[in-house]
Each structure stands twice: as C-alpha cells, then as structure tokens.
Amino acid sequence: MIPSVLPTYSRAPLHFVKGEGSWLIEEDGRRFLDLGSGIAVNALGHAHPDLVKALTDQAQMLWHVSNLYEIPQQQALADKLVAATFADTVFFTNSGTESCELAVKMARKYWYDKGHPEKTEIITFSGSFHGRSSAGIAAAGSEKMTKGFAPLLPGFKHLAWGDHEALYAAFDETTAAVLVEPVQGEGGIRPMPDQCLKGLRALCDEKGVLLILDEVQCGMGRTGRLFAHEWAGIAPDIMMVAKGIGGGFPLGAVLATEEAASGMTPGTHGSTYGGNPLACAVGCAVMDHVADPDFLAGVNRRAGHLRQKLEGLVADHPDIFESVRGSGMMLGLKCKVAPADFVKAGYAAQVITVPAADNVVRLLPPLTLSEDEIAEALVRLDKAATALEAHPA
Ligand SMILES: Cc1ncc(COP(=O)(O)O)c(C=O)c1O
Pathway it belongs to (predicted)? Predict the structure, then answer.
C-alpha cells in the first residue's frame, strides 16, 4: 500500500523535534551536530532568537494579504537586497525552483520585447541542479532527473562542465542566456574557478547574451561573500536565490538589473504566496545578519579553520577520503567510499552531513558554526570515518 506521504524520498530514520543553533535534537533525546542545515537553508542555525522574534512578531500582526496590495516587509527586503547587490529589482518566490521558472521567463521575455523572439535558448552545464519543475529538470537535463517526464520543456543546450571549446562554439542567434551555479551544490560542490566566471561574463557581454546565476545554494553568505559571484568580481544580469534567504522559512527571490527585467511588466508574472509578510519579515532579519561585513568576516575565518581541519581528516583517513573542495562553509569531502555510507556512519556518530553527486559528502553547516563546534565536528567526523574503516558497508 502506498504510504500516506508520497514516497519520493529515501528518508533516514531520524525524527528531529527541536533545533538549537547548530544542533538538532532527536525524539529520543540524542543531540546531532548539524553540518547540513537542511541543505544550506538554516544559515543562522536553528531557532535564532532574531528570526524567532521577527516571525512571531509578524505572526501576531498579519500573515498574508496577497500581492494585490503593498507589502511593507517585501519592500523592505527588496530595498536591502538592492542596496547590497548588483540588482535593481527583486521578485519574491517561495523556493529555488520557482526562482528558476522566473529566471527562464525573464530572459526569454527580455529578448522577445527587444524584437528577437528567436532568442529562446539557454545554455546550461552538466552536473547542474536548478529544481524539479518542468523548466528545472529540462535545464539540468540529466537522465536521472528527466527520465519518464517527457516531453521536456524545449530551449536548453547542455554543455559539459569545464569544456571551454564547447562553450565558445555553443552560442548562436538563438542563444538567450547562460545559466550556471557559481558553485555546483547537488553536482558535488564544484566551484567554477573565478577566472572562468570572469571569462564567462566577458563571453556573454561579447555575444550579447544574458548571464543568469543560480545562487540558490551558494548564495546568502554560504561561501563567505554575500553572493558567490562576488569572489570573481563580476555581476550577473539575473540571479536566483532561495534556501538561506529565509533561514528556514520558505522564501526565494529573483534579482535582476533594470535592463534584464525590462520585459516583466504588470501581469507577466505572479505568485499567491511569494513575498508574503511572514517570509519577508524573516528574510529582513536574515539579511541584517548575513549582509553585515563583520558577520561575513567571521564566516571566512571559521570556514578557513574548518577547511584546515578537514584537510587533516582526509590525511588521517586515506581509505575513506580523497580530498576537500569548495568555498567558505560550502565544503565537499570527495570520498573513496559511497557518500551515503559515510553519511550513515555520521548518523551513528551524531553528526549530520549531506550526500551529493560525484562521490562527494557535503558540509553545509550553519554560518554561525562556532570554533568549539568545529572542533566537535571533527571529533564526530573522525569517529564516523574510523567506524567505516573498521566495518566497511
Ligand atoms: C542550485 C539550486 N538551484 C535550485 C534549487 C531548487 O530549490 P528548491 O528546492 O528550493 O526548489 C536547488 C535546491 O537544492 C539548488 O541547490
């Protein structure tokens, strides 16, 4: 008999009932160190007092009104995002997938309104992940995500990650945009080198094509800058955001320049919930922390220590790990064992990690992970690796 919850997930038998900072508490009382943050969502950890206050204060006042009316919290969050980034304008969604939908629509509408309806194609890369909607899976293009879901949304050209020659050859008169994650998350924590991101921006400028960055996973302070593309000193035309921006409350956004957004006039897009008062009140509280340069300096300092210690862990367990990669608090342990086996060993050691493609285990801790918690993380990760050495899965 089919379970009452549609069985699309392979869930671990863990029942968390409470979160405190970097810790998750299981029904049975065990405390797990959370190095996953619900896949890069709880940027400020669990139950951060400022987020709890923002949410509960707003909950006492007003939950929802619809985008038929002005929403002051939405305006405030848009102003903060515009002030802190390349963007001139913001549309709020509830998820990364919805941000992908709008990014694709925005790019195509831009060219349509410019008198180029033939420019509809979007270049994407192998290993990418942009969500599970029809546009999201068509954008990623992998068999794993698209099999059985044909006909797929047309208009995506998939290139191999890192194949520069294919990229130069891929542009033609139908190209509307390039869509890329500055650091691939689901694909196995694969950062695009700064030089490549710079080169890609220059190529898009040369060809007159829009650059869309998917910073759903790598944005909002995750790499130690507010957005990952800042490391390369470039800016996109359109950017997808979600996950960390709500700190655990469902919220996403599409940020864009005035030019790139010029096709999105009244009636061309909408959302019942997107940018509702609860989500935006929380988003404002998240931004007040994450956009603060002192906060980001702390993230970089502690991320550096975490990485250093992970290098030691890899050296201590050469049969389990191959290398560490990533940026800031978005780190990957390239494994010699199946990532799922290490993640499972982590559960026994009461530390949460997340598997990814390319044989990688992801560490996406709260950006607030303390020095003491970094030390504790290493104890637990070492325990998991040692157990896996003693009893290979
Ligand atoms: C880079 C990237 N884009 C898009 C998405 C889709 O976001 P959501 O699951 O919020 O719809 C994800 C989710 O993991 C992601 O990592």
Answer: Amino-acid biosynthesis; L-arginine biosynthesis; N(2)-acetyl-L-ornithine from L-glutamate: step 4/4
